Amino acid sequence: MRVLVTGGTGFLGEHLVRQLLEGGEHEPVVLARSTSPVLAKLGVTQVRGSVSEGAELEDCLASCQDVFHLAGIVSRDPKDGQRMMRTHVDGTRRLLEAAARAGVKRVVVASSSGTIAVSESERIHDERSGYSTEVAAGWPYYASKIYQEKLALQLGSELGIEVVVVNPSLLLGPGDRRLSSTEDVLKFLRKEIPVVPQGGMNFVDARDAAAATIAALAKGTPGERYLLGGPNWTFQEFFGRLERAAKVNAPRLKLPAKWLRWGAGLMEEVYRAAGKEPPVDKISVEMGQHFWWIDSSKAERELGFEQRDPALTLVDTVAYLRRNIATEL
Question: Is residue 262 pLDDT above 80, yes or no?
Answer without folding.
Answer: no
